[in-house]
Design a protein that fits this description.
The protein is 34% helix and 29% strand. The chain is built from four helices and six strands. The relative contact order is 0.17.
């Protein structure tokens, strides 16, 4: 497994709010889960710092396709209670191409609505 940090709210890469956990071996580069920084911090504070990333993973996150509409992104966030949605291509739904955070989605939705009204 490999982990790549990122931020749904434009923080610096040195202080990511989440880590994308990607598979290895036959599943190299495939999205396994998104671990939020607070989940990793909680494990360390609970003196579980020796655990592997695999031990922190619960279920694969809900994803969204790059060509889905913002309404679908909002629905999936609400239904699944996630803070972030990994964005994947329709042709290869296991390999992430980006991540949308709640703030990103609502900002884009607001811009789209304002453009419609103008």
């Amino acid at each position: 497994m490999d982990a790549h940090g990122g931020s749904g709210n434009r923080e610096t890469e040195a202080d990511p709010s989440f880590w994308a956990v990607l598979g290895g071996g036959d599943e190299a580069g495939a999205l396994v889960d998104l671990l939020m920084a607070h989940e990793i911090e909680e494990a360390v504070l609970d003196e579980r710092g020796e655990e592997t990333l695999a031990a922190l993973i619960s279920t694969p996150p809900e994803t969204i396709f790059a060509d889905d509409h913002l309404d679908e992104a909002i629905r999936r966030l609400g239904v699944h209670g996630q803070q972030l949605l990994p964005v994947v291509a329709r042709g290869n739904s296991r390999h992430p191409i980006g991540v949308l955070g709640r703030d990103d989605i609502f900002q884009a939705y607001s811009v789209a609505r304002l453009s419609e009204q103008a």
